[in-house]
Write a structure and sequence with these properties.
With 391 residues, the protein is α/β, with parallel strands linked by helices. It is built from 15 helices and 13 strands. The protein is globular and about 70 Å long.
């Protein structure tokens, strides 16, 4: 289906007499009412467009489907693009100690709680959330098209002063500079470190180190492992954004994608991701995050969430060789457990991973290391076509 995302394409499509089905995305079409009345729209979709009631009714009665952004719903039901930090954090004020609670992102989270979170009984609420999440997935696919995507998973409790935080940022910075698109769960801790590294790809490593030093100073008496709950957690990050903006013209070279969820809305998403694919449904978000990381996943120290992601990735790698659809390629990609003590003692998954991969093609792509240089080398040397199925 043709996707129409600007007015020029829309005009051309109409001038051609609407010769094929199309999805028209998030355009202001209020001035095209007379022209719209001249066509039929069998099988066409109008998603998040501004339309008069007459135009919307006409399209619906002439074979098309209209999905509008309802004024009685706080969030946009359909989005043509991923969120930017500026959009999600609209309303944030550095001078306000409760700044995060004033943001668009937090207001959606409050509405999410009021509406029943994942157990809502409202068909309208559940349907609008699913339409929103579908549009996020569609926009995400456009962003990652043709890109070498690498994910870093890890715990939200990792503090900015943790040596692993700096090391993850350095790994991410190097991989971004080598042309990889870094993604993560988009939250605090190890996830934030991923995006800090990508954000500073066009700046010096020393500048990044200075920025992290500035952010890691916590209030007296702050609880261990819950830095994201510090009242000034977001404030410290925002000051770094203002002090170290991405150099003009280097936006693509500093790009990364955070993929958070409102299920964990009590944790603010990181502001260092240049693009944010935020979901209501955590299950869709989790599976999608693992799936798009075709060039590998680095598992930094984490707890339950990171463990779940290891199992999800192991499952995808295990079943890839048994793909029977000749027209669809599936890939086995690197799984790098980063942190020897963590993955052999605190959460002894390394032995388990070795056992379940015995005799499987994925066994040669499972690694355990404490060496950041080895992490980079394993990602850079990986050739997905050598591990693609069916062959």
């Amino acid at each position: 289906m043709k996707e129409i995302e600007n007015i020029h394409e829309f005009r051309e499509w109409l001038n051609e007499g609407v010769p094929h089905e199309a999805a028209v995305k998030e355009l202001d079409l209020t001035s095209y009412e007379d022209t719209i009345f001249k066509h039929n729209f069998n099988g066409c979709l109008f998603l998040g467009c501004d339309l008069s009631n007459h135009s919307a009714g006409y399209i619906s009665c002439n074979g098309g489907m209209v999905i509008s952004n309802r004024k009685d719903v706080l969030f946009e039901v359909f989005r043509a693009k991923l969120y930017s930090p500026e959009e999600l954090f609209k309303g944030f004020d550095l001078k306000n100690k409760e700044g995060y609670k004033c943001t668009y992102d937090y207001k959606i989270y409050e509405d999410y709680i009021r509406s029943g979170m994942e157990t809502t009984t409202s068909i309208l609420v559940s349907l609008t959330r699913r339409l929103h999440d579908h549009s996020i997935t569609d926009a995400l696919q456009e962003i990652i098209e043709g890109r070498k995507v690498v994910a870093i998973m890890g715990g939200h409790s990792m503090e900015r002063k943790d040596p692993y935080y700096l090391t993850i940022a350095k790994i991410s910075r190097v991989l971004t500079r080598k042309g990889f698109l870094m993604v993560s769960g988009g939250g605090p801790g190890a996830m934030e470190a991923t995006h800090v590294g990508a954000y500073f790809a066009a700046r010096t490593e020393k500048e990044m180190e200075n920025a992290i030093d500035e952010m890691k100073i916590r209030p007296k008496g702050a609880a261990n492992g819950k830095e994201y709950a510090d009242q000034d957690w977001l404030h410290r990050a925002w000051r770094v954004l203002e002090k170290y903006p991405i150099p003009k013209g280097k936006e693509k070279e500093s790009m990364s994608v955070g993929i958070p969820t409102w299920l964990y809305g009590h944790e603010p998403p990181t502001v260092f991701a240049t693009h944010i694919a935020k979901y209501f449904a955590n299950s869709i978000r989790e599976d999608g995050l693992v799936t798009i990381a075709r060039h590998g996943i680095i598992f930094a120290p984490g707890s339950a969430g990171t463990t779940q992601e290891i199992f999800q990735d192991a499952t995808q790698n295990h079943y890839a060789p048994y793909n029977t659809i000749a027209s669809v390629k599936k890939y086995i990609s690197p799984m790098i457990l980063f942190g020897v003590d963590h993955w052999t003692k605190k959460r002894p998954l390394w032995t388990f991973m070795q056992e379940i991969s015995k005799g499987q093609p994925c066994a040669e792509l499972i690694y355990l290391t404490e060496d950041a240089g080895e992490v980079v080398e394993k990602i850079v040397s990986y050739d997905p076509e050598k591990h693609a199925y069916p062959r």
